[in-house]
Specification:
By secondary structure, this protein is of the alpha/beta class. It has two domains: about 130 residues, 3 Solenoid (UDP N-Acetylglucosamine Acyltransferase, domain 1); about 55 residues, Udp N-acetylglucosamine O-acyltransferase, Domain 2 (Up-down Bundle), CATH 1.20.1180. The strands form three sheets. The protein has an eleven-stranded mixed β-sheet. A nine-stranded parallel β-sheet has the order 2-5-8-11-14-17-20-23-26, with no helix packed on it. α3 runs antiparallel to α4. The protein is elongated. The relative contact order is 0.08.
Length: about 260
């Protein structure tokens, strides 16, 4: 274990032997940090926080602080961060609240740029990219492979489906279906993330099916429930449409229009 002599690490913290902790960082008693992780200088890790393997946390981050929620009364809620994540400078991730599942969670292999805020009870999947100053309000769900453009703001309780993408300075106040690109204030649909899907190995046939689903939602004039039923039926034949089924089960705020 390589802990800088100026770092303050509570003896009750569970730190793997090969973890590195930089100068002037502070690690609280209820923190767990798994092997291969690197905590830079001037980082505060507190609360009931679990950090997985091979993470890189850059200087001036605050992980596991109390939620910015006036209802919070000190309950032992949690922050869980998976493996192989990069968290750049000045990011703030808060623990969950008793009003939700009590856990703020980020999965694996996420690339989080500077000044990103992840509020209480957010659930973030795997392989996402959050550009600088992206902000998630409380209770937001973000699926795998999502890309949030710089200065994107996401309203509380919003769901962003897998493989979706937002443009710079998008203000997302309603749910974003999988694969959809969103742009503007307030964010509106702007086609599908076709280039991203090609890079991830989606076949031309799968991309055509996803484009067809987009047209079902946005171009055919169908009521939302009718579009949902049509896409769910098609997903039984086209596995690549399964993210829509997962999204429909979570979505409650209504989708961007």
């Amino acid at each position: 274990m390589a802990i800088h002599p100026t770092a303050i690490v509570d003896p009750k913290a569970q730190i793997a032997p090969d973890v590195e902790i930089g100068a002037y960082s502070i690690v609280g008693p209820d923190v767990t940090i798994d092997s291969g992780s690197w905590i830079g200088p001037h980082v505060v890790v507190e609360g009931h926080t679990a950090i997985g393997k091979n993470n890189r946390v850059f200087q001036f981050c605050s992980l596991g602080a109390a939620p910015q929620d006036k209802k919070y009364a000190g309950e032992p809620t949690r922050l869980e961060i998976g493996d192989n994540n990069t968290i750049r400078e000045f990011c703030t991730f808060n623990v969950g609240t008793a009003q939700d599942v009590g856990v703020t969670r980020m999965g694996d292999d996420n690339w989080v740029m500077a000044y990103v805020h992840m509020a209480h009870d957010c659930q973030v999947g795997n392989h996402t990219i959050f550009a600088n100053n992206a902000t998630l309000a409380g209770h937001v769900h973000v699926g795998d492979w999502v890309i949030l453009g710089g200065f994107t703001s996401v309203h509380q309780f919003t769901v962003i489906g897998e493989h979706a993408m937002t443009a710079f300075s998008s203000a997302v106040a309603q749910d974003v279906p999988p694969f959809v690109m969103a742009a503007g204030n307030r964010a509106k649909p702007a086609g599908i993330n076709a280039e991203g899907l090609k890079r991830r190995g989606f076949s031309p046939e799968a991309i055509r099916a996803i484009k067809s689903a987009y047209k079902t939602i946005y171009r055919q004039g169908l009521a939302y429930d009718d579009a949902r039923s049509q896409i769910e039926a098609e997903a039984l034949k086209v596995p690549e449409l399964a993210p829509f089924t997962r999204f429909f089960a979570l979505s409650e705020r209504g989708i961007i229009r």
